[in-house]
Amino acid sequence: MAAKQGLRRQAGRDGRCTIGQQSSAAAEGDAAIVAERVTKVFGEGQDAVRALDDVSVTIRQNEFFTLLGPSGCGKTTLLRLIAGFDHPTRGTILLQGQDISHLPPYQRSVNTVFQSYALFPHMTVGQNIAFGLEMLGKPKAEIAGTVAAMLKLVRMEELRDRRTDQISGGQQQRVALARALAPRPKVLLLDEPLSALDYKLRKDMQIELKRLQNETGITFIFVTHDQEEALTMSDRIAVMNRGRILQIGSPREIYDHPAERFVADFIGDTNFLKAEIVAVEGGRARLRLGTGREVEADLPHGMAPGASVTAAIRPEHARIGAERGELSGTIENIVYFGTDTHYHVRLEGGSGFVVRSQNLRDSAEELRTGQLVEICFKSDAVQVLRD
Amino acid sequence: MAKNTPTTGLVEEMQKREVRRSWLLSAPALAVLFAAASGPLLIVLVYSFLAGGRYGGVEWQLSGKAWFSVILQRDIFDDTVKLADAHLSILWRSVKLSFLTTVTTLAVGFPTAYFIATRSARNRNVWLFMITIPFWTNLLIRTFAILEVIRNEGIVNTALRLAGVTEQPIQILYTDAAIMIGMTYVYLPLMVLPLYAAMERMDFRLVEAAYDLYATRLQVLWRVIIPLVKPGIVAGSILVFIPSLGAFVTPRVLGGGKNMMLGNLIELQFGAGRNWPLGAALSITLLAVVMVALLFYVRTVQRGSARAR
Q1: Which residues contact A306 (CB under 8 A, 6 or more apart)?
Q2: Chain B closest CA to A237's CA: distance in Å?
Q3: What CA–CA distance (Å, rounded) separates A20 from A330?
Q4: CA-CA-CA-CA torsion sign (B162, B164, B168, B172)
Q5: N or C, fewer C-beta in 10 Å, chain B?
Q6: Pairing relation of β-strands A318-321 and A372-377?
Q7: CB distance B224–A163 less than 8 Å?
Q8: Which residues on A lie below 8 Å from B309 (Cβ)?
Q9: B2: how many CB neighbours lie within 10 A of its CB?
Q10: Residue A114 near chain B (CB below 8 Å)
Q11: Which residues are CB-contacts of B97 (< 8 A; sequence separation ≥ 6)?
Q12: Are A169 and A91 in contact (CB under 8 A)?
C-alpha cells in the first residue's frame, strides 16, 4: 500500500509517467506483476554497478507488456529479477499479490523464453516441452496431452521426436515458446526472443506471439531493444535507460507524447529544436524557436515562461510547403526510401531538420538539393520536452 | 558429360595427393606408436608363450605353463590342479579397489570441477593450476606424503587422539583402504580435468532454463548437468580406472607386502620371482581386464543415453 502511494507521489513529483501509472494504480487489484522501488546493484565498492535504480512498475493481467531500451539499460536485469535468477538488492516484486522477491525460480509460476532458446540438447522436442510438467509432478497422461496440445499450438506436431539440433532456428524458437507455455505460468517472460531470427521470420513470429498471447490469455513481458517490435506488438511499453523507467504507456502515447528527450530520440526519428517559452495561456504555450520564429504547443506540467526547452517534431508530421511555414532552410540531401522520401534540410539557424513525405502518385513538383524551402507543421505536432 | 571434365579429374588428383601427404605427415607418429606401444606389447605376448629361464629371461621354446599358472596351480604334494587363490584374490582386489577409486574420484572430482567451472574466467585458471601442482612432484613422494597422513602416528590419527575421539590409533596404513585413499589422491586430477573440460563447454543457461521450469537443484543435477557432462564422466572414469588397475607404486608403499595388486604381482614375476613368462601372461591378462571393463562400461553408458533420448 505504502508503495502504491510512493508510485503516485513519484508520478506527481516529476510529472512523468502520468498516463501509464494512474491507470495502472487503478487496476492494481488485478496486477500480474508489481515491482516496488526495485534496485539491483551488481558487485561491490568501486566496481558496483547499479543495473536497476528504484524502478516501480505495475504490469496488468493478460497484458502484452514490453520493456524497451538500449543494451545495458536494465531491462534484462528486471526480467531476471522477475524470473528469479537474480534477487533485488532493495525493493519487492509481487506476483499476483504474493511477494516473490527472494523465491528461487522453481518456486514461482513464471517461465522464460531465453534469447538463446536454451533448449536441452539431450532431449527431443517433445521431452523439452514435457520437462516443466514432469518437474511439477503432473501425471503421465496429462503431460502427454499437454505436450500434444502445445505442439499443436505452435504448429510443430510432426517434429515431436526430433532432436533440438535437427530443427531450424525458427522451429527452435517455437519449441522454446511451447516449453515455457506448457506449465501454464501466470507470467511469461520473453528475453529478446526474436533477435536471432532473420527479418522475414521475425515478422511472422511477431504475429505468432500476439496470437499465442490472445489464445493463452497469459501475461507476456517482452524485452527488446527494437522499437519497431515494441510498437507493433505491445499493449503497453516501458522505456528504460540507465536502470530507470523513463515512461510507461501505450505505443501511441509513447510515440506521440514522449515524456523525455531520450524517449523521443530512442523511439522513431525526431527533430529536436532549441526553444524558449515566451508566453503561457490556458495550457498552451508560445515557443520561440532558435531560428526566431514562434509556434504554439501543448504545455506539460510545471513549466513557466522563460524556461528553455526542447521542441520535438516527428519528420512525418512536417511537410515542405509552398506557403510561409514555421521554419525555412535549404535542402541538403534527398534520400529515397521507396514508400517515402526524406528531405534533410539545413535550417537558417544552422541546425538540421528532416522532413519525411510519403511518395504519393500525385506528388507535386520535384524538389532539388540546394533549393530554399519552407517547412510547415501543425501546432499539435510540436512536443515540448524539458531541457 | 560434366563428370569427366578435366577440372573434375584435377580435383580428384589433388584429393589423392592430399591423402598421400596426410599419410606422410602422420608417418612419424605412427612409427613411434608402433615402436613404443604395439611392438613391446607383441614381445610381451610372445614371451607369455615361452618357457622361463633359470635366472630370469626366457628360453626360446613354446610353453603354456605361464598361462596355466595365471589362474591355476598344481598342488606341491599331490599334483592336483586347483585355482590359484593368491592370484585370484589379487585380481579381485585390483578390480575392486580400482572401481572404488573411480567412484570416489568421481564423487570428489565432480563438485570440484563444478566449482572451478563456475568461477570467473581468470580465477578458473588459478584453480586449474592448483589442481595440476601435485604433478610437479614425483609419484613416490606424493605417496609417502599420504603415508605420513594416514600412518598410526600420522596427522589423522594424532588429531583424532588429541581431540579425544580415539584412544588407540585406527589402523589405516597397510590395508586396502590405504591403497584406495592413495590412489584417489594420486588420480584425482585425471578425473577433475576431463570433468572440468566438459562442464566448461556446458551452456549454463540450460541450468537456468531447468530452474525456470521448476526443477530443484537435485533434479537439475540429474536431468540436465549429468547428461550433458557425461562425456567428461566417461573420459575421467577411464583415465582413473586404467592406471588404478595397473597401479604399482601406491599399493607397494601403502599396502605393505601383503596387499598386492596386479601391478605388484607382475613386478614380482619380472623381479624376484624370475618368471618372465608368467609376468608377461599376467600383463596380457591385465590388458584383457581393462578392455572388457571398458567395453562393458561404454556399452552401459550408451544404453543409458539411448534411453534418455
Answers
A1: A276, A277
A2: 24
A3: 40
A4: negative
A5: N
A6: antiparallel
A7: no
A8: 122-124, 163
A9: 6
A10: yes
A11: B176, B179, B180, B183, B244, B251, B261
A12: no
Check if A126 contacts B (Cβ < 8 Å). Answer: no
Which residue is listed with cell 487503478? A26
CB nearest A135 (choices: B215, B228, B309): B215
The one-letter amino acid code at B303 reads R
Which grid coordinates belong to A69?
Answer: 531500451
A168 neighbors A217 (Cβ within 8 angstroms): no
Closest A-chain CA to B305? A122
| Contact: B216, A135; criterion CB under 8 Å | yes
pLDDT in tens, chain B (309 residues): 444 555 667 888 888 888 888 888 999 999 998 888 888 999 999 999 998 888 878 888 888 888 888 888 877 787 788 888 888 999 999 999 999 999 999 999 999 999 999 999 899 999 999 998 888 889 899 999 999 998 888 888 888 888 888 888 888 889 999 999 999 999 999 999 999 999 999 999 999 999 999 999 999 999 999 999 999 999 999 999 999 998 989 999 998 878 889 999 999 998 888 889 999 999 999 999 899 988 988 888 877 665 544
CB atoms < 10 A from the CB of B105, how many? 28
Shortest Cα–Cα distance, A46 to chain B (Å): 18
Does this complex have an ipTM over 0.90?
no
Q: What's the grid cell of residue B72?
A: 591355476
